[in-house]
Description:
By secondary structure, the chain is of the alpha/beta class. It has one domain: Rossmann fold (3-Layer(aba) Sandwich). The strands form three sheets. Strands 7-6-5-8-9-10 form a six-stranded mixed sheet, with helices on both faces. Strands 1-4 form a two-stranded antiparallel ribbon. It has a two-stranded antiparallel sheet with strand order 2-3. Helix 1 crosses helix 6 and helix 2 crosses helix 3. The protein starts with a helix and ends in a 7-residue tail after the last helix.
Amino acid sequence: xxxxxxxxxxxxxxxxxxxxxxxxxxxxxxxxxxxxxxxxxxxxxxxxxxxxxxxxxxxxxxxxxxxxxxxxxxxxxxxxxxxxxxxxxxxxxxxxxxxxxxxxxxxxxxxxxxxxxxxxxxxxxxxxxxxxxxxxxxxxxxxxxxxxxxxxxxxxxxxxxxxxxxxxxxxxxxxxxxxxxxxxxxxxxxxxxxxxxxxxxxxxxxxxxxxxx
Length: 213
């Protein structure tokens, strides 16, 4: 995965401007995976800012057109990537579906919502990639249904080796608009974070499982 430097920096700057990035070194956030983190990236906030969501939509459309052949549909990972996925699908004139973390226990008991046929191809849209578990679950659901997953495009990645290894093992091509390194670089340049906070953020990234505030 090779990032476009200009897009990566611009995306990181937008996320910082709208305060989608939350920092708390003293009382870190707990992810669903159990990892304690001094940083939390809430990309869903971008939907409330037209200029930011339009940037993300256009950057994702460009990334898809540059890196992949045209898919039959766009698939968003619930819930964080539903809104952005719809915007991308609309911009490209493509059908849209979304994937739940697990099948509903009532009604039609769907895990994939929307209409798509086995054999059709999709690009999966994700808001962010941490350990890659939720992204992989969505991809597995699509594959189990017989859908061809051409690849994934996400707003942001923490660059965890565990996620990269997972996608490589399943031969899934992944591209992101920005990443942890660019985010921290832009946050430092814009004085969004103090120097002592910067040290803690870099320390966390080197060993997130064993990191302590």
